[in-house]
Amino acid sequence: MTDAILFSVDEGLARLTLNRPARLNSFNADLAHAWRDATTEATTRDDVKAILLDAAGPAFCAGGDVIEMASTMHDGSPLTELAGVINTGIRALTESAVPVVAAAHGTTAGGGLGILLSTDYAVIGASSRIGSLYANIGLTPDLSVSAQLADAVGRRRALQLVLQDRLLTAEEALEWGLVAEVVTGADAAAEADLVRARAEEVARFWLAGAAGAYGEAKRLVRSQPGRTFAEQLAEEARSIGASFDTEDAKARVAAFAAASTKKPR
């Protein structure tokens, strides 16, 4: 793994930091491969129960590195290949039973929107802006934007975003359901720190509770489109039974029942 992504694990929390701040954490080949490797490791390690995705510098992710595209790519095949590498990491996050929180300060655009959509809970700053902007340079949505955006905000709003030169304000992103929380800081640097701190609080909340159950709940919701209604009901029934058999659930159910019987009537 290279310095394009900083990776660490601390008490069950894997932190992945996009680390190309001079290019607004836009993806080149180095970051694409580091992203694939880091997400694959984070979602397959037994000691990881939650993931926090953040970014260095003034922005979360500006998508693809357009300057590098223009200077190194003579046709579209390398771009297709790199998108496939990044998509491996996106699938690792979305198909896992590990909840993922994003600390997405600053601007998120292009493929960065797909990266944001691949997380399960997003915290942004009041000055953050989020958009598509692919068509501004003649390109089409990638990195799961067309696969996930409509599910997140509805088809009509998804079309508004991909068919206009528009960056949503933080308030709009919250209203649309694209993000979960907005925090405000005194300036850009302070706000970025607050976004990261709040995202870590969310992750630590998962870890302090029934982390495995949160992960399975995420998996159930994320994987539902691949099943019929009847199949989803059956998978829910199987999952809750499997959860009940864990030591964590047995202890929590017993504690809840004991506390309930002691309450005055």
TrEMBL record:
Keywords: Isomerase. One of its GO terms (biological process) is fatty acid beta-oxidation. Coiled coil: none annotated. GO terms for molecular function: isomerase activity. InterPro entries: ClpP/crotonase-like_dom_sf (IPR029045), Enoyl-CoA_hydra/iso (IPR001753). Its EC number is 5.3.3.18. The keyword Iron does not apply. Pfam families: ECH_1. PANTHER family: 1,2-EPOXYPHENYLACETYL-COA ISOMERASE, ENOYL-COA HYDRATASE-RELATED. This is 2-(1,2-epoxy-1,2-dihydrophenyl)acetyl-CoA isomerase. It comes from Microbacterium ginsengiterrae.
